């Protein structure tokens, strides 16, 4: 299955009103991108070379550092966190992740920095262009806001609802674009979305009161964007935090058996439970990291163990949540949905 290339983080920087930088935070050339003359994501700025970027992982966390790209006087790091915690089967079962961006301004001018998370209403595969997908904005609690993406799957499989969100505070302003498309026929195109961010560094606040989008048409892709903007003073730093969660309460097997996923025991089966999950993720991720550190630090500091063994020991644990493993509640459900 090909990657869904609309699912990206991008950065927009303005200094002194004249200097502007923008790029998708994905290095390298991508064969699936068409000519930049179209109205889809090929029209975005894919400028990151990646030779000054680094990535390392220690499951359930990973770190990506962008040092001086695209702005030579800005260092950006992204810490990715998944709540996989020993003996905590409630939070370890949650289909959610957190992305903590730390922005350091090494220059002499203050910089306006906007980080944007774009997400396609898609799970890839057969239902990518099948139509009937709907996006809607939401404002949650504790400064959390974003977009819900209701996805209608193919072949009678259970639906999926994504929540993409960021956390607003006195230093960070969050705005959204609930729906944009990839073709000229879209009411707002990917090209127009990118142009708005280059010019303004944010979206219209009134987008939060927009109605749900019309169901997408057959053959079309509908996407959403969440923007978090901040000012970073000279030699200062700022933190911006995003979260992603997805609600797909039922898992259905080929032979007809269906089960509720484990997280539904704590969050229920409503598609809108993904809002509660991103809210909790953005409020609890610091505690999750404390628990992860308590678990991992004694092993990482054990001089009796070789380095390769420590790294492998943790990184291969991904299989417990992503290697064909399904965490379910105890009770099965009627596969017809009754």
Automatic annotation (TrEMBL):
Superkingdom per UniProt: Eukaryota
Domain Glycosyl-hydrolase family 116 N-terminal: 2-288
InterPro entries for this protein: GH116_N (IPR024462), Non-lysos_glucosylceramidase (IPR052566)
Pfam families attached to this UniProt entry: Glyco_hydr_116N
Molecular function GO terms recorded: beta-glucosidase activity
Protein known as: Glycosyl-hydrolase family 116 N-terminal domain-containing protein
Lineage, uppermost ranks: Eukaryota, Viridiplantae, Streptophyta, Embryophyta, Tracheophyta
């Amino acid at each position: 299955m090909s990657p869904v290339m609309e699912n990206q983080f991008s950065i927009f920087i303005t200094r002194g009103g004249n200097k502007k930088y923008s790029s998708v935070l994905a290095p390298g050339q991508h064969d699936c991108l068409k000519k930049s003359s179209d109205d889809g994501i090929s029209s975005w700025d894919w400028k990151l070379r990646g030779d000054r970027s680094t990535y390392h992982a220690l499951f359930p966390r990973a770190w990506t550092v962008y040092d001086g790209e695209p702005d030579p006087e800005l260092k950006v790091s992204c810490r990715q966190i998944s709540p996989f915690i020993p003996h905590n089967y409630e939070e370890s079962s949650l289909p959610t992740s957190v992305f903590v961006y730390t922005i350091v301004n090494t220059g002499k001018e203050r910089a306006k920095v906007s980080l944007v998370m774009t997400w396609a209403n898609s799970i890839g595969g057969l239902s990518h262009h099948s139509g009937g997908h709907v996006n809607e904005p939401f404002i949650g609690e504790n400064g959390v806001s974003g977009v819900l993406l209701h996805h209608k799957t193919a072949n009678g499989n259970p639906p999926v609802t994504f929540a993409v969100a960021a956390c607003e505070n006195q230093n960070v302003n969050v705005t959204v674009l609930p729906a944009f498309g990839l073709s000229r026929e879209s009411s707002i195109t990917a090209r127009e979305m990118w142009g708005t961010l280059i010019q303004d560094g944010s979206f219209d606040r009134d987008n939060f009161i927009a109605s749900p989008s019309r169901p997408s048409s057959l053959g079309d892709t509908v996407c959403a964007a969440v923007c978090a903007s901040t000012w970073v003073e000279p030699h200062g730093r700022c933190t911006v935090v995003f979260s992603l969660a997805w609600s797909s309460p039922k898992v259905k097997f080929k032979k007809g058996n269906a089960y509720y996923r484990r997280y539904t025991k704590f969050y229920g089966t409503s598609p809108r439970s993904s809002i509660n999950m991103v809210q909790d993720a953005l409020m609890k991720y610091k505690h999750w990291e404390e628990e992860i550190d308590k678990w991992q630090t004694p092993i990482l500091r054990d001089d009796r163990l070789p380095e390769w063994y420590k790294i492998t020991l943790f990184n291969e644990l991904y299989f417990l949540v992503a290697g064909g493993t399904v965490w379910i509640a105890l009770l099965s459900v009627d596969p017809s949905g009754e």
